[in-house]
Inverse folding.
């Protein structure tokens, strides 16, 4: 699968390559851990949707083990991985709702679970 479009009409376009879990942006590309790749893809596919804990358990965590600790672990590992490669987006917590992808330096209003 390859998805190449600006995120919600803003930001830098990304291209997702499932074979190898590679994401490309600008002149850069990076191989990501499978769970980080799946998380970013789910966040990217619907920029107006807040990814809930249940969404993360169903679509990102391979064994579907639903626990707050498992979700926090996946999110924290993904954030560290994104920081290490200077990814142009960050994972934003929507307290009480879930997670959204946010272009760095661009505040995104809380749209609920659209």
């Amino acid at each position: 699968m390859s998805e190449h479009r600006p995120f919600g009409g803003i930001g830098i376009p990304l291209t997702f390559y499932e074979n190898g879990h590679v994401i490309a942006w600008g002149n850069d590309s990076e191989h990501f851990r499978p769970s980080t790749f799946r998380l970013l893809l789910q966040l990217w596919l619907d920029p107006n949707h807040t990814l809930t804990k249940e969404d993360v358990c169903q679509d990102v965590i391979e064994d579907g083990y639903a626990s707050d600790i498992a979700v926090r672990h996946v999110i924290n590992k993904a954030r560290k991985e994104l920081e290490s490669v200077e990814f142009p987006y960050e994972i934003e917590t929507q307290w009480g709702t879930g997670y959204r992808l946010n272009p760095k330096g661009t505040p995104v209003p809380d749209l609920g679970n659209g």
